[in-house]
Specification:
Layout lengths: L1 H23 L10 H5 L4 H12 L7 H23 L2 H37 L1
């Protein structure tokens, strides 16, 4: 009798899981975007980061530049998803990370240019 209870319970749980999978269609999952999400406008901070990102130059032959650009695109994408879900804290965190990477990249880029200028000037003298 005890074995029949376990078998019956296993069948009921399996059917419930199957029904949720068939009728849920992923609606319980927060990671999936819908068609309505593409039409929504994103937060002004995300737009600002995207505009800044479009102005920044990357030398993709350098591994560090390629990595920074990839990470920036990832953080902007994550910020958009967080904004669409209404996760303000996460959105702000991803925007801040992207801004920090852009700031670091521009600082490093300026330092590299200054070093190249010094080297060129020293060689010219």
């Amino acid at each position: 009798m005890n074995i029949l209870k376990w078998v019956y319970s296993a069948i009921v749980v399996s059917v419930v899981i199957a029904l949720i999978g068939m009728f849920g269609q992923g609606k319980l999952s927060v990671s999936q975007a819908t068609a309505d999400d593409a039409e929504r406008t994103v937060h002004a901070d995300i737009v600002k980061v995207e505009q800044t990102l479009s102005l920044v130059e990357f030398d993709l032959s350098k591994k560090a530049h390629l990595l920074r650009k990839t990470r920036l695109e990832f953080y902007v994408k994550q910020a958009k998803q967080a904004d669409l879900r209404g996760w303000k804290f996460k959105r702000d965190e991803f925007v801040e990370r992207a801004e920090n990477i852009i700031s670091h990249h521009l600082t490093q880029y300026a330092n590299d240019i200054a070093q190249e200028t010094e080297t060129y000037t020293a060689q010219a003298i």
